[in-house]
Amino acid sequence: MATQCPRLSPTPVLSYCDSGASGNKSDHHQNTNSALHISQRWMPQCSGRLLALHANAGAQKKVGRLERTAATDPAGFMTLIFQVEILDSKTKEQLCFLDKVEPHSSVGDIKSLFHKSYPKWYPARQSLRLDPKGKALRDDDVLQNLPVGTSAILYFRDLGPQLGWTMVFLVEYIGPLLIYLLFYIRVPYIYNHKYTFTSSSHQVVNLACACHSFHYIKRLFETIFVHRFSNGTMPLRAILKNCAYYWGFAAWLAYYINHPLYTPPSYGETQVNYALIIFVLCEAGNFSIHWSLNSLKCEGTKCRRFPNPSKNPFTWLFFFVSCPNYTYEVGAWVGLSIMTQCVPVALFTFVGFIQMSIWAKGKHKTYNREFKDYPNLRMSILPFIL
Amino acid sequence: MASGEEDGTVEEKETNNKKRTKGAIATAWLTFYNIAMTAGWLVLAVAMARYYLQKGTHKGLYKNIARTLKFFQTFALLEVGHCAIGIVRTSVIVTGVQVCSRIFMVWFITNSIRQIQNEESVILFVVVWTITEITRYSFYTFNLLNHLPYFIKWARYNLFIVMYPLGVIGELLTIHAALPYVRRSGMYSLRLPNKYNVSFDYYYFLIIVMLSYIPLFPQLFFHMLRQRRRVLHGEIVVEKDE
């Protein structure tokens, strides 16, 4: 046997295994004997399966091809080769057959291959699992580490149209910003027609508009320039639900604040000024935390270190909570509620607090699990309380 | 260390004992609860039948049974608690939605809007509720006593196919009948201007409630259908084995 590994070019095993197909790829003739020998040693099911494949070729079953790099395996020519069959998880019909898959290729690679055969199912939209009712495999799972033989069967499910995180947040935040402004300038058909395009006589209404708009402009800015998102996506249905929530609530609270019959706060200027101070401090705090989270060296969701307080006084909240960004967010909305003295704003704050507490508790648990030296003093969202 | 190991097994036995007693207390309480509720709804059924047979009309029937109905329907709030603490294995949300819709009908529609109490739709949904609840609570009771007669199981998983839609029709017709009275009286409503800068119109709220039946009712109905299929499917498998 030659000591050098025969150069296996990126053609399917078909040309090697199928000894009946002569003259198929003439340039590989000199390799055929040794290659056949290899294939028969490592892929005993090969010939039977590939004869069937040959027959099926007429039936136009799609066969994916993996671009192989030259296999100069240090162990010689004994490269274990995988075959991957992809079935629809509901109908169990075969959607794709991938032969000659390298053992250390990832699920992500397989998804890219599958995408080539079915262009409308881009990788973010694919869910591949080992069992039709099981958990979806991660993109970074390696084929040879999965509990499959050399012939793997994966079940495919379409997750529906997906949107990247940046797009999701842009869409979610631009709505409330614009909707509030529409109510502020009092476009026709919302209020009594004699108030169309008038402005409120109360200073606090103008201030509330400035604060609300600043809040969402800051969020848009952070989405574009500050946050680093993983390659994850969100399904379209969830985005529609989120947008309905944010946009709907924004319309509801904007309606009352900009209403001609709006009643300014009971304690007048004092209440508005204190609330404004709370709002500004919390917005600054929220931005500081986002900035400091940005400076952590994270790869996707895995971070080497948990966030810690820095020289910035706003980050000192890290001594007491795991997710001070959520704390500051709730604080800013509390400030806005007090400033406007408006029940819908308070309700939005409350619902947001519930949701963010759930997220904060999850994050807190993850931190505690991943880092053994995680400080005990820290709570999840409210210092000493939650 | 020997003493450490001994402590371990003693603790294990204690927790097992605690679990067993907790299970026994839960079962006892649930049995009592379900028997009480079955009895309560039976009383309601008998009272309604007696009234109708004596008076020959449904007018004034609701007023006659109002207190009993309100008591037993409100008591059903405990079921949400049962799901929350885990002694009943049903989703808190599903139970919560069902109980809340019942409470809403009883307290915020028929109780507060007197003029609609003699409507036929009220009798419709009260009768439907009575039949459904008697079946349901007796099913739970017999289940807890491990002695379930087949006809109760049959009733529980088949009657709802007729009762659920009829109940929904009764409820929707009742709310619809209440609308003009709500509009006229402006009840449960808050108008602008007020210092909380919020307004609430019960009339439009009722319209939204009626519209919400469209997405919610099919979900609850198909939930019951799925349970029915699971129960009946299980029976078929057992028969084949024998």
TrEMBL record, chain A:
It holds the Pfam family Steroid_dh. It is a multi-pass membrane protein. GO terms for molecular function: very-long-chain enoyl-CoA reductase activity. It is found in: Endoplasmic reticulum membrane. InterPro entries: 3-oxo-5_a-steroid_4-DH_C, SRD5A/TECR, TECR-like_N, Ubiquitin-like_domsf. Involved in both the production of very long-chain fatty acids for sphingolipid synthesis and the degradation of the sphingosine moiety in sphingolipids through the sphingosine 1-phosphate metabolic pathway. Catalyzes the last of the four reactions of the long-chain fatty acids elongation cycle. This endoplasmic reticulum-bound enzymatic process, allows the addition of 2 carbons to the chain of long- and very long-chain fatty acids/VLCFAs per cycle. This is Very-long-chain enoyl-CoA reductase. It comes from Cirrhinus molitorella (mud carp).
UniProtKB/TrEMBL annotation, chain B:
Its main location: endoplasmic reticulum. Pathway: Lipid metabolism; fatty acid biosynthesis. Keywords: Endoplasmic reticulum, Fatty acid biosynthesis, Fatty acid metabolism, Lipid biosynthesis, Lipid metabolism, Lyase, Membrane, Transmembrane, Transmembrane helix. The chain crosses the membrane at residues 32-53, 122-145, 157-182, 202-222. The keyword Cytoplasm does not apply. GO terms for molecular function: very-long-chain (3R)-3-hydroxyacyl-CoA dehydratase activity. It is found in: Endoplasmic reticulum membrane; Membrane. Pfam families: PTPLA (PF04387). GO terms for cellular component: endoplasmic reticulum membrane. It is a multi-pass membrane protein. It comes from the Eukaryota. It catalyses: (3R)-hydroxyhexadecanoyl-CoA = (2E)-hexadecenoyl-CoA + H2O; a very-long-chain (3R)-3-hydroxyacyl-CoA = a very-long-chain (2E)-enoyl-CoA + H2O. The keyword ATP-binding does not apply. Its EC number is 4.2.1.134. GO terms for biological process: fatty acid elongation; sphingolipid biosynthetic process; very long-chain fatty acid biosynthetic process. Catalyzes the third of the four reactions of the long-chain fatty acids elongation cycle. This endoplasmic reticulum-bound enzymatic process, allows the addition of two carbons to the chain of long- and very long-chain fatty acids/VLCFAs per cycle. This enzyme catalyzes the dehydration of the 3-hydroxyacyl-CoA intermediate into trans-2,3-enoyl-CoA, within each cycle of fatty acid elongation. Thereby, it participates to the production of VLCFAs of different chain lengths that are involved in multiple biological processes as precursors of membrane lipids and lipid mediators. Belongs to the very long-chain fatty acids dehydratase HACD family. This is Very-long-chain (3R)-3-hydroxyacyl-CoA dehydratase.
